[in-house]
């Protein structure tokens, strides 16, 4: 998928006209991540939000498993998808770790640039934040499904 295709189909700019979408996308800086590169860590200050244009990003939850540090895969995000929404949502801390399992291109949007853009274009800001809310809702569903699976396992073990 080309950058133009990924950005035109991006969940970040859904509902915007072509000129409005291009205005938002023009705020992004292209970044190429080599295989294995880490984009951000859990708990870091979130100054940027990202749109994947090529490759994929693994979102993981670092935790201790049997005395070892492991990154537990939560989900993988693909071209056209948004990550790092914590840049727009207080307290502006990343809630997962993001890394590139293969060479990946992203557009990086600074929080300051986005908020400045939205201040002069409230309808664009509303549409983008609504789209970010959809991404957040998806993440909540993922965690809810993970939690439910774990609870079912615990109940099954108690019943055995």
Notes on the structure:
The chain is of the alpha+beta class and 160 residues long. It has a single domain (3-159), classed as Jelly Rolls, CATH 2.60.120. The chain has helices at 3-8, 18-25, 111-120, 122-159; strands at 29-33, 38-40, 48-54, 57-65, 68-77, 82-83, 97-99, 104-110. The strands form two sheets. Strands 1-8-3-6 form a four-stranded antiparallel sheet.
Secondary structure: elements and pairs:
Elements (H helix, E strand, L loop, with lengths): L2 H6 L9 H8 L3 E5 L4 E3 L7 E7 L2 E9 L2 E10 L4 E2 L13 E3 L4 E7 H10 L1 H38 L1
Antiparallel strand pairs: 1-8, 2-7, 3-6, 3-8, 4-5, 4-7
Helix pairs in contact: 3-4
Structure summarized in a few sentences:
The chain is α+β, with helices and mostly antiparallel strands. The chain has helices at 3-8, 18-25, 111-120, 122-159, and strands at residues 29-33, 38-40, 48-54, 57-65, 68-77, 82-83, 97-99, 104-110.
